[in-house]
């Protein structure tokens, strides 16, 4: 299938790393938060193998930050998500879905506590700044909300610890998932979190002040020559193997966190002993879903046959000619030698025993439910 190109204009924002990305030979982009996000360099499969065996530098500056600061910042942050944020300290960040009044997912960001009464919401692909600004205005909260000059550079892959140590002269082996350290660079320092959109391990560096961006990029490539460092990006095969959900693809505002397998990020917000619910947007709707159980749920799904085409729109999932769900992301896995996918299916057909069929653009495929991701 022919993939049309993207016309890059001022309306489509480039990132502080875009010139470096062009120089490294990026071959495809998508649009994410009105910005460029690289999707392929050499080929999806070559990038996949390299990510699993070496180390990559990713321009993910499109994961924009929404900064909330002021006396009511903590109050506002806690209203936005069903996650219990009591463990959110200055040395940690937390994955926290944001919900609307009906419990639908607005976004699934990482929340960073930069300092007291100052937070960054590191967002997926939706206009969170407008959503949060509207809530703050409607409730007359004493906060300032804006997009700061912060761009994320991700270091991903099994050699990421080694490359980080070569660049910053620190030991990163003991840094736990979603923990934060400050890394020195020139006359400043950046927040670096053990996080990223792969399961190969790595870090996301919050580059505050874009004038440092290109120099930091160059330092990583110089230090990583012996490690076979390469420019990379979130990989469509690896993320499906890993069961990493893409907002706008695998989950939307029409899905709630329970259906998306994110119940563990909601449960602590509910005090079942008293029946009272932590006050957050969508609390009553989510309490009802948790009491009654979800009607559908996201699963990893294996499909038989030859390598499947790119999934650009949902593919129907059937059980004996009855539609019971849809595939939202799919790829052929070179490591598992099978077609892997993510899809939302009716709860009664979500176990591994269900005999399902998927209608793909090149014919019907037999499908097998996996209750865990492939990696």
Describe the structure.
By secondary structure, this protein is an alpha+beta fold. Among the domains are: 18-63 and 149-240, 2-Layer Sandwich (Gyrase A, domain 2), CATH 3.30.1360.120; 295-375, Aminomethyltransferase beta-barrel domains (Elongation Factor Tu (Ef-tu), domain 3), CATH 2.40.30.110. Helices cover 19% and strands 33% of the residues. A hairpin with a 4-residue loop joins strand 16 (270-271) and strand 17. The longest helix has 11 residues, at 128-138. The chain is globular, with a radius of gyration of 21 Å. 47% of the residues are buried.
Structural class: alpha+beta
- Alpha-carbon distance between the termini? 29 Å
Which residues form runs of ≥5 with pLDDT under 50?
none
CATH class of one domain: Alpha Beta
Write a compact overview of the structure shown.
The protein is an alpha+beta fold and 375 residues long.
Secondary structure elements and their pairing?
Blueprint: H1 18-23, E1 28-32, E2 35-40, H2 44-53, E3 56-59, E4 65-69, H3 73-80, E5 93-95, E6 98-99, E7 105-107, E8 110-115, E9 118-122, H4 128-138, E10 144-146, E11 150-156, H5 160-168, E12 180-185, E13 188-193, E14 202-208, H6 213-223, E15 230-232, H7 236-242, E16 270-271, E17 276-277, H8 283-292, E18 296-303, E19 315-319, E20 322-333, E21 338-346, E22 356-360, E23 363-370
Parallel strand pairs: 3-15
Antiparallel strand pairs: 1-2, 3-11, 4-9, 4-10, 5-8, 6-7, 8-9, 11-14, 12-13, 13-14, 16-17, 18-21, 18-23, 19-20, 19-22, 20-21, 22-23
């Amino acid at each position: 299938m022919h993939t049309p190109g993207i016309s890059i204009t001022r309306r489509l924002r480039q990132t502080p790393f875009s010139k470096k990305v062009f120089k490294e030979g990026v071959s495809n982009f998508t649009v994410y938060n009105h910005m460029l996000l690289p999707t392929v360099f050499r080929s999806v499969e070559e990038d996949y193998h390299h990510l699993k065996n070496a180390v990559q530098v990713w321009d993910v500056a499109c994961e924009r930050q929404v900064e909330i600061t002021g006396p009511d910042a903590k109050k506002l942050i806690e209203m936005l998500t069903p996650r219990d944020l009591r463990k959110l300290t200055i040395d940690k960040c937390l994955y926290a879905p944001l919900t609307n009044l009906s419990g639908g997912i607005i976004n699934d960001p990482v929340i960073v506590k930069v300092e007291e009464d100052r937070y960054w919401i590191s967002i997926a692909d939706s206009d969170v700044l407008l959503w949060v600004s509207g809530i703050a205005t409607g409730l007359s909260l004493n906060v300032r909300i804006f997009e700061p000059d912060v761009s994320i550079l991700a270091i991903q892959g099994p050699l990421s610890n080694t490359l980080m140590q070569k660049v910053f002269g620190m030991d990163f082996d003991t840094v736990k998932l979603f923990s934060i350290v400050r890394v020195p660079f020139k006359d400043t320092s950046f927040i670096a979190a053990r996080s990223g959109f792969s399961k190969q391990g790595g870090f996301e560096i919050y580059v505050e002040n874009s004038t440092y961006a290109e120099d930091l990029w160059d330092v990583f490539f110089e230090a990583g020559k012996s490690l076979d460092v390469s420019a990379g990006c979130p990989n469509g095969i690896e993320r499906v193997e890993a069961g990493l959900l893409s907002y706008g693809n695998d989950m939307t505002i029409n899905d709630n966190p329970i259906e998306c397998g994110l119940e563990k990020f909601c449960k602590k917000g509910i005090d079942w002993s008293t029946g009272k619910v932590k006050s957050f947007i969508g609390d009553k709707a989510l309490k009802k879903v948790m009491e009654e159980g979800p009607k559908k749920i996201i699963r990893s799904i294996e499909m038989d046959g030859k390598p499947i085409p790119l999934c650009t729109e949902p593919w129907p999932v059937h059980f004996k000619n009855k539609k019971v769900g849809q595939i939202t992301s799919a790829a052929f896995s070179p490591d598992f030698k099978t077609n892997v996918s993510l899809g939302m299916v009716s709860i009664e057909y979500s176990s591994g025993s269900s005999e399902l069929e998927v209608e793909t653009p090149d014919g019907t495929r037999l499908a097998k439910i996996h209750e865990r991701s492939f990696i």
